[in-house]
Design brief:
Strand 2, helix 2 and strand 3 form a beta-alpha-beta unit. A 9-stranded mixed β-sheet has the order 3-2-1-4-5-6-9-7-8, with helices on both faces. Helix content is 39%, strand content 17%. The longest helix is centred in the C-terminal third of the chain and has 21 residues. It has one domain: Ribonucleoside hydrolase-like (Inosine-uridine Nucleoside N-ribohydrolase, Chain A). With 321 residues, the chain is of the alpha/beta class. The protein has 13 helices and 9 strands. The structure holds alpha-D-ribofuranose (RIB) and calcium ion. The site of alpha-D-ribofuranose has 15 residues, from helix 1 and helix 7. The site of calcium ion has 9 residues, from helix 1.
Length: 321
């Protein structure tokens, strides 16, 4: 069921090639009101991912959404970055112009708290697509935030196998303690994990459709996907790269595109071999309520239709609410 009133969201991200596409989808789709882009260390260091958010917003003409930097590392563990997938800059591929979109002063954790507390109860949705450090810190600093949030729809985790280790997906692996706080809080969590996102591959036919738009934004996305595709081929053996993060935004736009099943999800923080694993119990074997929504099946054509429409819409002066 499509919403009539645009859904207010905060996109908490670590750009990152697929985060860049999540920014474009969130800014370019009329059913989303992108309230802020907050950045967190993950794919690369905080300065790099924040600069990358500025770069994407500059090329995509996203000029009235605040970009606010957050935590520079995980709650407890040392930061692990992903140059093997995203390059030294975190967004290798395109030739970037000097960014004209500024970083808004302040800290992302405070911005998340302020925006949620200022919005109506149940009005704001959080869409994290990087490590969950900012979200966990916001919960700890202002617990009243939890009941006010409509839902958390996050890209992270997996119920079959990980990508950084056999057990753990990158966003959870980087900061398992933060993920444990987020999954344990008393709010609605939807986990859009690798089991779903690996269905969202940017095939050559998809890349050709994007290239055919022939706009600066489309050319940026094609350059991003060429780099992302080559690193995914080399590092993970994928013929076409899975664009993980925008599928979480697509779930907010139209839940029918991202089928979910209820489960109990526990984050492993102690395991020698399994730290960062999202232990997913669909059958109540552990005796806990099946309170999380876990993404299982993607409507591939429906997703790419949303994504390509958004690429066409931004940068053309499309209203970014
Ligand atoms: O495991 C994939 C996730 O880790 C994506 O969000 C990607 O951007 C990286 O952050
Ligand atoms: Ca990401």
């Amino acid at each position: 069921m499509r919403e009539t009133v645009p859904r207010k969201i905060i996109l908490d991200c670590d750009p990152g090639h697929d985060d860049a596409m999540a920014i474009i989808l969130a800014a370019g789709n009329p059913d989303i009101s992108l309230q802020a882009i907050t950045t967190v260390a993950g794919n690369q260091t905080l300065p790099k991912v924040t600069l990358n958010a500025q770069r994407v917003c500059t090329v995509a003409g996203i000029t009235n959404v605040p970009v606010i930097a957050g935590c520079a590392g995980p709650l407890v563990r040392p930061l692990v970055v992903a140059p093997d997938i995203h390059g030294e800059s975190g967004l290798d591929g395109p030739q970037w112009p000097e960014p004209t979109v500024p970083v808004t002063p302040g800290h992302a954790v405070d911005a998340i708290i302020d925006l949620v507390m200022a919005a109506g109860e149940g009005e704001m949705t959080l869409v994290p697509t990087g490590p969950l450090t900012n979200i966990a810190m916001a919960v700890r600093k202002e617990p009243r935030l939890v009941p006010r949030v409509r839902e958390v729809v996050l890209m992270g985790g997996a119920y079959t196998r990980g990508n950084v280790t056999p057990a753990a997906e990158f966003n959870i692996y980087v900061d398992p303690e933060a993920a444990d706080i987020v999954f344990s809080a008393d709010w609605s969590v939807t986990m859009v994990g690798l089991d779903l996102t690996h269905q969202a591959r940017a095939t050559s036919a998809v890349v050709d459709r994007i290239a055919a738009l022939d706009t600066p934004v489309a050319r940026m996305v094609v350059d991003l996907l060429h780099f992302f595709g080559s690193s995914y081929q080399q590092e993970q053996g994928f013929e076409a790269p899975p664009v993980h993060d925008p599928t979480a935004v697509a779930r907010v736009i139209n839940p029918a595109l991202v089928e979910c099943a209820d489960a109990f999800v526990a984050v492993e923080t102690m395991g020698k071999w399994t730290a960062g694993m999202t232990v997913t119990d669909f059958r109540g074997k552990l005796g806990f309520p099946l309170a999380a929504h876990v993404a299982t099946r993607l409507d591939f054509d429906g997703f790419w239709s949303l994504m390509i429409d958004a690429i066409a819409a931004v940068g053309q002066g499309a209203a970014v609410s």
